[in-house]
Amino acid sequence: MIAATLPSLLPDRQRIVLTGIGLTAPNGNSLAEFREGLLNGRSGVSEYEIRYFGKTVAGVCDFDARRYQARKEIRRGTRAGSVGVYSANEAVVDAGLDWNNVDKSRVGIYLGVTEHGNVETENEIHEIKGYDYDTTFWSHHHNPRTVANNPAGEVALSMAITGPHYTIGAACAAGNAGLIQGAQMLRLDECDVALSGGVSESIRTFGIFASFRSQGALAAHEDPTQASRPFDVDRNGIVVAEGGCVFVLERLDDAKRRGAKIYGELAGYAMNTDATDFVLPNPERQAQCVELALKRAGLAAEQIDIVSTHATGTTSGDVQECTALRSVFGKSDQTYFNNTKSLIGHSMGAAGALELAGNLGAFDDGVCHPTINVHELDPDCDLHGLVLNEPREIGKPTYILNNSFGMLGINSVVIIKKH
């Protein structure tokens, strides 16, 4: 028995809750707008064209960066930084924190990223090409723009936060990893408020599109809104997306003391590694990660109401995850499965955080949002309880499990309990 880790047996000082959410997604710039888009099957994928690559499709965000940044700050910083600044400020507002009286030295920032710096490097090379590659025209802002901690650092500068800040490089598992890191730091008493989640500016670099195309893993469709179609027999790859989602995490006793609204409680989590391939997922290791998260939460698989799948729309990746999930959940009539990438594309470092946020509304409305664009289900992706094309009323759920996996075999799972 692992009594020391079961949430129900922890003191309130060690129980971690979500009290604020700020986000920008290709189909919404607030939790309410995002949730409404998911329930109504509104795709955020559109036509997109990028230098040196040409026309493609992508999930593009349209948020007001000027809400929290001056033009000079936007020019000096990065797109990922602006995404983080917007999301973190929105999260703090949503949490109802008395920000002027919060001890900023006790606030930590933990943002997951897939990669950072490629956009800025590509831009600078493009600029000096016009000057015969004379590096005297290279921006003196390049180094602070490209250091790995930049997105979290820009949030710290914008919000005058003097506690710890760093990014978590965890490929496409990074959104979950940011949340896990924030929870761990709260439990270690390294901070009293954790701004945790993930950000992505991936659509701004042509390299990611070129690489996915060379792998045969870049989605294409004459209708951009149907390009992202995990589980469909005709799926043909990933739709690259940008976005960000930041959660305000607090200890339960602190949240209670200030009368905060609580979106949910962290019930369990796990991370592990496939150690088998650069890109091909290992279903056995993914299943082990899910099982470890369940064990830490003290739950049986059938107690999970919604599983938010990671599935990206690649031919092999979707099958591998479904194989893992069938091995854990079997044909449970209590568990429903959905996929958010079908609506917004793959927001890389932000994916895990955004996909979790999009499902939290089910605690209140009792509806599981659908996976869209599944015209013919791949038999190898057939999951009992898979919600396709239309939302499904499932009653008020108690537990949501969020899968988020990445290249080099990194796996992460987070379980949130209705509070």
Keywords:
419 residues; Peroxisomal Thiolase, Chain A, domain 1; 10-stranded mixed sheet
Would you give an account of this structure?
The chain contains 14 helices and 14 strands. With 419 residues, it is α/β, with parallel strands linked by helices. It folds into 2 domains: 255 residues, Peroxisomal Thiolase, Chain A, domain 1 (3-Layer(aba) Sandwich), CATH 3.40.47.10; 153 residues, Peroxisomal Thiolase, Chain A, domain 1, CATH 3.40.47. Strands 5-4-6-7-1-8-14-13-9-10 form a 10-stranded mixed sheet, sandwiched between helices. β9, α11 and β10 form a beta-alpha-beta unit.
Task: Give a quick summary of the entry.
This protein is an alpha/beta fold. The chain has helices spanning 31-39, 71-76, 79-95, 118-129, 142-146, 150-159, 174-187, 206-214, 252-257, 283-297, 315-329, 341-344, 351-360, 362-365; strands spanning 16-24, 45-50, 54-59, 107-113, 165-169, 193-200, 243-251, 264-273, 306-308, 336-338, 367-368, 392-393, 399-406, 410-417. Helix content is 32%, strand content 21%.
